[in-house]
C-alpha cells in the first residue's frame, strides 16, 4: 500500500486559500446566510415527513427530492450491481451524513457505535446497539442481525472516521468483514464548491449548517459487484481487498493511516506552535499566527511567549512555548533558557541561515555569567534564597543590558 501524507487526507481549513475563490466566497456569503436560514425551515419539514411516512420507495423518493432543495444532491452509478441478498454494505466515509444518503437509495441501517444515544441517535438515522460489553459483544450482536431474515442490510464504514475523500482511504478495520461472507462495496465521492466538506473536531450539527450554507453538495454513489470471502481468507485480508477495490474505483490510494493516527495528528497540530519563515521577524507575525490558530489556553501561552521573546529575541518561539508549557511562568522560562543556552538553537534573522548556532552568540560583547541551577535543593532557607537572588540579579542585569543595546543608550545614561 502506498502511504499518502496525512495532511493531504483532511481539510484543516474551512475556507479556501486561493484568492479568487475566497473573493467569490465573500460575494456569496450574504446569499449563503439567507439560503441557510431558509433551508433550516425546510429541513424541519423534511424531518417531519421522513418520520410520518412509512418506509417505502415513495418515502425515499419524496425525501430525496426535498434533500435536493436542501442542497444535498444524490447521483448513483451501476445500481444494477447491487445484490438484494447481500446483508452488509461497506462504504468509505466522507461526511457525517453518508448513511442518510445511502438510505435515500436503498433501505439500510447503520449502527451508532459511539457518540450520542437516544433521541438524537434516532433522529440522525442511526439505530442504537444496546451493548456495553466492548467491541466483541457489538460484533456478535451485529452478526446476529445480519443472519436474521427480513432485516434491512447493514451499512458500515470500516474507516471509522471521515476523510476529505480526495487523497486516500484510512486503513479499514477488520471486524466488519467478520460479520458475513458476502459484502457489497459502495464507493462514495462527495463534491462541494467554495468551502471544505468537513473539518476535524467539527460537530455534526455545525457540518449540517455549513451544508445548508453551501450552494450544493453532490454525493456520487457507485455500486461495485459483491465480494465473497474465500476459504482460508482472514477478515483482514478481505478488508484489504475491499479497500483496494474502493480506492481503485475512486482514484485514491490505500493507506495504513488509522483513525487513531488521525486523532494523534490533530492533537499534535492543536498543541504545536507554527514556525516562522526565514527573514521574517517573529514578533511581527509569529504571535499573530499563534493567537489565530490556538485555543484559549494557548492564547495565554502565546502572550507569555512574546514576553520572553522581548527579552530573548533570538530564541525560536517553538522553543519558548515548549518550555512555557512545562513551567507556566515567564521568569522561570527565561531562567531555563539562559541556563541551557548551550543546548538552545538560535533563531536565524536577516540573511543568516538556520543551523546549530548557539544562543550564546546572539549577544554582542560578553554575556552575563548565569549560575547554573542548583544540583540539589538548598539545605537552609538562606541558601535557597541566596541562589534565587543571584539568578534574579543576573537576569535583571542581562535584560537591562539588552534594553540599553536596543535603544542605543550609553551605560551612564541608563542610570
How would you explain this protein's 3D organization?
- By secondary structure, the chain is α/β, with parallel strands linked by helices.
- Helices cover 45% and strands 10% of the residues.
- Strands 1, 2, 5, 7, 8 and 9 form a six-stranded mixed sheet that branches.
- The termini are far apart.
In short:
The chain has 415 residues and is an alpha/beta fold. It has 13 helices and ten strands. The longest helix has 34 residues, at 19-52.
Features:
6-stranded mixed sheet; about 425 residues; 13 helices; two-stranded parallel sheet; alpha/beta; about 45% helix
Map the helices and strands.
Elements: H1 19-52, H2 57-69, E1 72-77, E2 88-91, H3 98-105, E3 110-112, H4 119-123, E4 126-128, H5 135-147, E5 154-156, E6 168-169, E7 182-191, H6 204-213, E8 217-223, E9 227-228, H7 235-250, E10 253-254, H8 259-271, H9 282-293, H10 296-311, H11 317-327, H12 330-339, H13 381-407
Parallel strand pairs: 1-8, 2-5, 2-7, 3-4, 6-10
Antiparallel strand pairs: 7-8, 7-9
Helix pairs in contact: 1-2, 1-6, 2-3, 9-10, 10-11, 10-12, 11-12
Report how far the terminal alpha carbons are from each other. 69 Å
The main pleated sheet reads as:
6 strands, mixed
Rg value: 29 Å
Shape: elongated
Number of helices: 13
Count of DSSP strands: 10
Quickly give the structural class: alpha/beta
Helix content: 40-55%
In round numbers, the mean pLDDT is 79
Helix/strand order: HHEEHEHEHEEEHEEHEHHHHHH
Poorly predicted residue ranges: 273-296, 348-376
* Proportion of residues in β-strands: 5-15%
Amino acid at each position: 500500500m502506498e502511504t499518502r501524507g496525512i495532511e493531504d487526507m483532511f481539510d484543516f481549513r474551512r475556507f479556501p486559500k486561493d484568492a479568487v475563490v475566497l473573493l467569490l466566497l465573500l460575494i456569496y456569503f450574504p446569499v449563503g446566510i439567507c439560503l441557510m436560514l431558509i433551508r433550516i425551515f425546510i429541513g424541519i419539514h423534511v424531518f417531519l415527513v421522513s418520520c410520518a411516512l412509512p418506509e417505502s420507495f415513495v418515502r425515499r423518493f419524496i425525501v430525496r427530492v426535498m434533500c435536493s432543495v436542501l442542497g444535498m444532491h444524490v447521483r448513483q452509478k451501476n445500481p444494477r450491481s447491487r445484490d438484494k441478498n447481500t446483508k452488509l454494505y461497506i462504504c468509505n466515509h466522507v461526511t457525517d451524513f453518508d448513511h442518510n444518503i445511502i438510505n435515500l437509495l436503498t433501505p439500510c441501517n447503520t449502527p451508532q457505535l459511539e457518540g450520542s444515544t437516544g433521541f438524537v441517535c434516532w433522529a440522525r438515522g442511526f439505530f442504537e446497539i444496546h451493548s456495553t460489553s466492548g467491541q466483541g459483544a457489538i460484533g456478535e450482536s451485529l452478526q446476529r442481525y445480519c443472519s436474521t431474515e427480513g432485516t434491512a442490510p447493514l451499512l458500515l464504514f470500516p474507516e471509522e472516521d471521515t476523510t476529505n475523500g480526495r487523497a486516500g482511504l484510512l486503513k479499514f478495520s477488520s471486524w466488519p468483514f467478520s460479520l458475513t461472507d458476502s459484502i457489497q462495496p459502495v464507493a462514495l465521492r462527495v463534491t462541494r464548491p467554495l468551502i471544505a466538506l468537513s473539518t476535524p473536531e467539527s460537530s455534526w450539527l455545525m457540518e449540517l449548517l455549513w451544508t445548508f450554507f453551501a450552494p450544493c453538495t453532490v454525493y456520487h454513489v457507485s455500486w461495485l459487484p459483491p465480494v465473497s470471502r474465500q476459504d482460508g481468507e482472514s477478515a483482514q485480508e478481505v478488508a484489504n481487498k475491499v479497500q483496494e477495490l474502493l480506492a481503485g474505483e475512486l482514484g485514491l490510494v490505500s493507506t495504513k493511516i488509522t483513525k487513531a493516527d488521525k486523532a494523534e495528528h490533530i492533537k499534535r497540530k492543536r498543541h504545536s506552535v507554527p514556525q516562522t519563515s526565514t527573514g521574517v521577524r517573529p514578533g511581527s507575525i509569529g504571535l499573530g499566527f499563534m493567537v489565530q490558530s490556538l485555543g484559549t489556553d494557548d492564547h495565554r501561552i502565546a502572550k507569555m511567549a512574546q514576553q520572553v521573546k522581548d527579552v530573548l529575541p533570538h530564541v525560536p518561539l517553538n522553543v519558548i512555548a515548549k518550555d512555557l508549557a512545562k513551567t507556566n511562568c515567564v521568569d522561570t522560562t527565561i531562567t531555563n533558557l539562559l541556563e541551557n543556552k548551550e543546548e538552545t538553537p538560535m533563531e536565524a534573522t536577516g540573511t543568516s541561515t538556520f543551523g546549530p548556532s548557539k544562543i550564546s552568540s546572539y549577544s554582542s560583547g560578553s554575556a552575563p555569567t548565569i549560575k547554573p541551577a542548583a544540583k540539589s535543593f538548598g539545605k537552609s532557607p538562606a541558601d535557597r534564597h541566596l541562589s534565587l537572588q543571584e539568578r534574579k540579579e543576573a537576569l535583571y542585569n542581562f535584560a537591562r543590558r539588552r534594553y540599553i543595546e536596543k535603544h542605543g543608550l550609553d551605560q551612564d545614561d541608563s542610570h
